[in-house]
Amino acid sequence: MARIAVIPGDGVGAEVMAPTLRILQALDVSEGLGLVFDTFDFGAERYLETGVGLPPGQLETFRREYDAILLGAIGDARVPDGAHAREILLGLRFGLDLYINFRPCRLYAESLSPLKGQREGQIDFVVFRENTEGPYTGIGGSQKPGTGDEVAVSTELSTRKGVERIIRAAFAWARKKGKRSVVLGDKSNAIPAHQLWLRVFREVAAGYPELEARHLYVDNLALQLVQRPETFEVIVTTNLFGDILTDLGAALVGGLGLSASANLNPDSTPLFEPVHGSAPDLVGQGRVNPMAMFLTAGLMLEELGHAQPAARLENAVLRAIRAGQVTRDLGGTLSTTGVMEAVLRHLEAPA
Amino acid sequence: MARIAVIPGDGVGAEVMAPTLRILQALDVSEGLGLVFDTFDFGAERYLETGVGLPPGQLETFRREYDAILLGAIGDARVPDGAHAREILLGLRFGLDLYINFRPCRLYAESLSPLKGQREGQIDFVVFRENTEGPYTGIGGSQKPGTGDEVAVSTELSTRKGVERIIRAAFAWARKKGKRSVVLGDKSNAIPAHQLWLRVFREVAAGYPELEARHLYVDNLALQLVQRPETFEVIVTTNLFGDILTDLGAALVGGLGLSASANLNPDSTPLFEPVHGSAPDLVGQGRVNPMAMFLTAGLMLEELGHAQPAARLENAVLRAIRAGQVTRDLGGTLSTTGVMEAVLRHLEAPA
Ligand SMILES: CC(C)[C@H](C(=O)O)[C@@H](O)C(=O)O
Ligand SMILES: CC(C)[C@H](C(=O)O)[C@@H](O)C(=O)O
After folding, report:
1. How confident is the model at residue A333 (pLDDT cuts 50, 70, 90)?
2. Is-contact B54 B41, C-beta < 8 A?
3. Would you give the DSSP letter of residue A134?
4. Number of residue pairs across A and B with CB atoms under 8 Å?
5. SMART domains, alphabetically (chains A, B) (predicted)?
6. Which domain does A77 fall in, by range?
């Protein structure tokens, strides 16, 4: 049995979560996964009412009683400066010490890429984004805010422990999956603190002689991701650079409607969320693309030890894409529900 | 008369500088620009010999006696951690207080873009990259380096003055050039210090009611640059994000072989450099693409008040590109000298 905490969240969160739960339940029935879902109403509404994003003790409850957290989206223009998103989203990532933000980037169909000459499957890399340090720790602030003398600072933190564990995770995964290379993206030529990344990368790489370890400055990495995305397999990078590079990666393979992510720590309760946000402009129209959430659920199944059902789900999404059973962002005409029904049909069809 | 300090620098620096000076001299003769060139040998060689990147007093000399600095490239693997690049390149940017890093991104020919369906001229935006603050100030360092307890920090600095002047520069330029929009890229949803950027952006924008002022989180901006680059005209952003976004922009229009940049402050001596680095793998082969340096020289001419010759130069480069008179990186077969000769011929041909 696996107990899953479901947080639909804000905006389109509920609209992508509902069909995802339908699909998970269908898989549960046919594969006997024993999934149990509890829903939590964390998000802007509750934050605006109570002033609290994550109630006290919640992290402990998640750690002790749940095997996974599945989250739709957090973000609402009524909350100034995204305060509740930081409290909930970063609160979960940091509070549960989920140091691996695992974000795959795969081209499911040639037509989905804005790039010339990229064929299906040719773009296929994973970003290991550090997820508990960087400028996301919130160290910093403003002196004399609102005046002409204002000085605002933000401190990017990298610890040996933090850098080493994400780099080790990337190399270990690359070995397990039989990949050929791991690329580090940093900015050590301008930011001396990033030399820690480069040093640890070289140290860890020495234990993986079968893997090519390449180092690129992040600006050059962004450029090469556009010019030759097919040369990347595993990228490991800082929290901030990972944020930018994974949106860039999403753009190369069809956009945020297809981008899944997993926040992991083998010793904690993992959090699964699509890379997209709450998309307020799409709310209530029934046409948001639920596929990123489906693929995110697939990552969850894999992490829960259900590799076979996870592959079945990804394959069903792939078939729906090939059949043009997609929402408007991918050039189709289907509604959110229509996409769900198509994926359900492909799930049931023989392989 | 205009006195220009020429720094060929490292790697391919000299190889792109020599043909650029030939072209500037040809323009000088035909247009009577009165350009005077003095060459400086700053770079890795001198740094390795003397331990000094920029000699004491050099900034003052540049400020007092020169109208512009033209730089090829700085970077050499023999200098650990790019120390001399920081001392020279960042030394000039910071020491001369060149707060505007102006980087245009224009698609000169459809075939140059890796993107589907982008036609000549359709991608045409400029990035105003803040150039004197950010994590580039060097605030930070490592505690217990090399140990398991190492903690490395880097502080990103934003001052009201620094943020305001780059944002004002972007809006003023957009108005002068009759553009329709200015986009801010920051990460204020995760980095509270970036709220200074957003506040100042909104304040300055209020003085430009004819311009659409759009705000995007940098991850989303990177994504949209790939998905719909034609919707951007003027982007203003932080030092670090500008570094990444301009390499990304370069990738969209043909790569670093065509990317020019100007480091500006109306009250100081400006510095002009291509976005590319010293490209050690290309040194001595006579086939590096000099066009980024040519276009950079064009930006210099414009800044020196020679808009007409600057346009003539850009146009000659454009014609060479259209005629396929390009180096290998752009799909051609010409040498560096061959490209120079082609551009010289187009310069002389009637428009
Ligand atoms: C060499 C490096 C310090 C520099 C920068 O980061 O500014 C370069 O990437 C650039 O964009 O000019
Ligand atoms: C909402 C924001 C704080 C978040 C981040 O920067 O991590 C998002 O962009 C993401 O990538 O998950």
Report:
1. very high
2. no
3. B
4. 203
5. Iso_dh
6. 1-101+259-351
CB A11 within 8 A of CB A283: yes
Q: pLDDT at residue B275 above 80?
A: yes
Residue that terminates a domain, selected from B252, B270, B298? B252
One domain for residues A81 and A4? yes
**Which chain A residues contact residue B196 at CB under 8 A?**
142, 145, 150, 152
Question: Tokens 């010793």, residue?
Answer: A267
Query: Does A339 contact chain B (CB < 8 Å)?
Result: no
Strands of the sheet containing A35-39, edge to edge, are A35-39, A2-9, A68-73, A271-274, A260-264, A100-106, A124-130, A234-237, A181-186, A212-217
Residue in B329, B327, B322 with CA at minimum distance from that of residue B346: B322
Give the domain-ending residue among A225, A252, A279: A252
**What's the rounded Cα separation, in Å, for the pair B275 and B198?**
27
Show the ligand 1 pocket: residues with CB < 6 angstroms: A 189-190, 219; B 85, 89, 243, 275
CATH classification at residue B35: 3.40.718.10
Of residues B151, B191, B255, nearest to A135 (C-beta) = B191
CA dihedral (A85, A91, A96, A99) positive or negative:
positive
Confidence of residue B82 (pLDDT cuts 50, 70, 90): confident
pTM (2 d.p.): 0.97
For the stretch A269-325, pLDDT in tens is 999 999 999 999 999 999 999 999 999 999 999 999 999 999 999 999 999 999 999
Q: What span, in angstroms and rounded, lies between the C-alpha atoms of B167 and B170?
A: 5
pLDDT at A244: 98
Residue A110 lies in a domain: no
Cα gap A138→A158, rounded to integer Å: 13
pLDDT in tens, B66-78: 999 999 999 999 9
- Assess if residue A194 is contained within a domain: yes
Judged against a pLDDT cut of 90, whether residue B81 lies above it is answered with: no
Give which of B185, B224, B251 is closest to A256, Cα–Cα.
Answer: B224
Which residue from A314, A291, A290, A317 is spatially nearest to A302, judged by alpha carbons?
A: A314
- Residue found by looking up tokens 């000659």 in the block: B316
CA distance B325 to A288: 47
Do B247 and B134 lie in a common domain? Answer: yes
Same domain, A74 and A150: no
Q: How confident is the model at residue A351 (pLDDT cuts 50, 70, 90)?
A: low
